[in-house]
Batch of 2 targets.
Target 1
Amino acid sequence: MREFVMGLPKAELHVHVEGTIEPATAFALADRNGVTLPWPTPAALAGALEFDDLQSFLDVYYAVMAVLRTPADFTDVADAYLGRAAAQGVRHVELFFDPQAHVARGVPIGSVIDGLYAATSAARERHGVSAGLILCFMRDRPVADAAATLAAALPHVGKLVGVGLDSAEVGFPPGLFADVFGDARAAGLHVVAHAGEEGPPGYVWEAIRTLRVERVDHGLRSLEDDALVAHLVESRMPLTVCPFSTVRLRGCATLADHPLARMLRLGLTVSVNSDDPAYFGGYVGDNLDAVRETLALTDDELHTLAANSFRSSFLPEEEKREHLRALDTYVADATNVRFR
Ligand code: ADE
Ligand code: ZN
C-alpha cells in the first residue's frame, strides 16, 4: 500500500522551502557561507526538533534558515526538495517562501526570488514536476514591512503565482493585512493564508471575507464553528492540511486523533501536505501513507485527497484536467493489478 500511496500522482500546495532544509544540508550550507549555527552538529540539530507549539518550532526554523545567503543556496535547497517530492509522486508544487526573514539578514529579495525561480522554472525538465512560488508575509512583523516587501517583489511578479500569510498566528489576525492583500490581488497574484492553525475560527472567517483567500492553510480550528464548516463545504474552499505538522506542533495529541477523516466525510475540500518536512518527520507521501494507515483511509478517500490537491491548485484548468485524468488512470490500473 505504501507503494500505491507514493506513486499516487499528487500536488503539494503547502510546503515552506525553508522548512525543507535537512540538518545535514543546514551544516553544509553553514560551512559554505561561514555561518555558525547554534548547534554543534547535524545530530544535535536533529535532536532539537521537539516542539511544544508553533512558536517553539519557528524559533528553530528561523535560526536554521540563516544559512541561506546566495541565490545558489536558494536554488540548491529548492531543487533538492523538488527532487524528493517527485520521488514521492508529486507532479505539481506551489512553494512558500519567507523573504522578510532573509531580507532582515541583508539578503536582497532579488537573490531570494531569482535563486528560487531558477529551481522552480527548471523543475519540469529536471524532475518532471511543475512548480510555482508563493511569497509569504510574516504576520508577526509590522504590516508596513509586508507592504514594503510586496513593493520590492512587484518587479518580480512574473516569477510568482501568489502571496500567503504565515509565522506566529495568535494575536495577528488576517484583517491586519487587508490592504497588502488587496494590492497583491490587484497585481494579479493568487492569495492564500495560514488560518485556524493555532488561531480561532474567527481568523478563518477573516481570511475569507477580508483577505478574500482562495485557499486556507491548515484551517483545522474551523471544525469548532459549524456555520464556518457549512460555508467551507458549500464554497468548496480548499484546506491544505498538514498531518505531521499538526501532531508535532501539538494541534492534536496523536495522529490517531487527527480530524482529517472527519473532514473528508464532512465534504471539506482537504488535501494532505508536508508543511516543513525536514522538521516534522516526512515529506508529503510519508504524510499521506501515515494517515492512510493510522486513520484507515480507503482507496477512494486517498483518490479524493489526491484529486483535491490538483483541484485546489492554481494550475490552468486544462492542466488540472490532465493531472486528474492521469490520477484516475493510475488508480484504475493499481486497483486492477491488486484484484487480478
Ligand atoms: N512557517 C513555516 N511553517 C509554518 C507553520 N506551520 N505555520 C506558520 N508559519 C509557518
Ligand atoms: Zn505552513
Note: The chain has a mean pLDDT of 98.
Target 2
Amino acid sequence: MKQFVVNGNIVTPDEIFEGAVFVKDGKIVHVEDGSVDAVALESEDIQVIDAHDQFILPGAIDVHVHFRIPGGEAKEDWTHGSKAALAGGVTSVLDMPNTNPPTISQKLLDEKRALVGKDAMVNYGFYAGATNDNVEEVAKMTGIAGVKIYMGSSTGNLLVDDMKVLEDFMTKTDHLLVLHAENEACIREHMAEHEGEENPAVHSQIRDPECAAQAVKDALALAKKHKRRVHFTHVSTGAELELIREAKKDADYITMDVTPHHLFLSSKDYDQYGTLVRVNPPLRTEENQHLLWEGIADGTVDLVATDHAPHQLKEKEQIYSKAPSGLPGVQLMMPLLFHMVNEGQLTLEKVVELTSSHPAQKFGIEGKGAIEAGMDADFMIVDLQKLERVCHHYLWSKANWSPFHGWHLKGWPVMTFVGGELRYEWRDKFHEGKGSELTFVNSSS
Ligand code: NCD
Ligand code: ZN
Ligand code: ZN
C-alpha cells in the first residue's frame, strides 16, 4: 500500500514548507516541495490524505516511559500505553527497567521483549537497570537503548548510590548511561528530618534542589574524568541546569532532558492536586520552572521526555507517605508543547528538535527523527488550531487521570502513522498494527 500525504506544512528543525510526503512499504520514499492535486493522485492502491492547513511532523520519540510490563499490569500495559502514545503523536518509546522483576540481566530483558512484542502498537526500545552489583552483566547486554541509573531511590528498588560503582558503569560498559540524579544520602537525611509529616508539599523539601545538584555534580565529575557520554533525565532545577550548561561548554558528550510536568507545574500546585503530583524529582518553584524554559531557549536542554510513570488513582489518592511517586505523561507532551507554540513561547521547528530529531540523534536511534526520503514513515498530522479540553474520557493510559485534566489546550495531533500505517485518528479511533523494536548505533561516545 502506498500513501501520499499532500498539501501539508512539513516541519523540520530548520524550516516549515508546504509539501507532500510519499510513503511506500513503511518508508518515506520521497518528499516533494509545493502543492499537488490530491484528486488526480487517487487510485486503487494509493491512499491520499490532504493535510491542507495542517502540519506534518516526524513522530515524537519519548526516551523515558514506564509501561510497567512485567509485574505492573494494574498500572499500565503496552496496549494502553501504546494508545496513549499514539493519541499524543508519539511513535517510539524507550521503556524503563524498574519493572517487576527489574530488567537487570540479558535473560530478564529477553523475557520482557517477548511480552512487549505481542502488544506494542508503537516502536520500542528498552533500558537495562543498574544495581550496585550487575555491572559485569550489563556490560555484556546487547540491543538496549541504554542503562538507567538511579543515583537516588525512586519507584522500584533499583539504586546505585556508590560512586565507585557509577564510575565502573562508565568505564566497564559502553552503553549510554541515563541518570536519575538525586543524591540518596541527602534524601535520607531529609526524610528523617520530616518523619511523620503528611503535607504532600513536604516531598519537595525532602528531595530538595540540593540533593539533585549534588548528584549532578558527582556524575559530571566522573563523566568529565573519563570523557564519558551520559544523559541526565528529568532535570528539574536551575542549579542542575547551570552545572550542565557549564559542563557542556567543552563536553558534547553530555546531554539532558526535562519533563512536561516540570515545565508546566510547580510546587504551588500541591494546593490543588495534593499527592497526585508527587513525583521524583519533585515539582519545583516557579523560579525553577522559568529557568527550565530558559534552558530550552538557549539550547542547554537537548530534549523533552515525559517520564510517563502511571499509578492507579486509588494508589495516588492515599496519604502522602503511602502515595507512590510518578504521573502519566506520554499522551499530553505534544499538545502541551503545541499550546506553547500558539502562546508564542516556542516554534514548531523547536518542538520537532526537542521531541524527535534530538531524541533520535542523541540516542542513536536508526531511521527515525525526520521527514526525509529513506526514513521510516513515522509521523503525525497536527491541527494547530484545534482547541480542546483535556478530558479523561480520552486519556488512554491505564492511569486514567492527569493533573492536566480540564486544561484547555490549543494544537493537537489528529492522525498518527507508524511505519506507514495510520494507527490513530482524532479523537478515539485506533487501527490495529504492531510496532517494531528500535535499533541503536553505539551511543557511548
Ligand atoms: C517513576 C516510576 O513510578 O516508575 N516515578 C517517578 O516519580 N518518576 C520512577 C522514576 O523514573 O524515578
Ligand atoms: Zn527517574
Ligand atoms: Zn522515570
Note: Residues 342 and 410 are 7 Å apart (CA to CA).
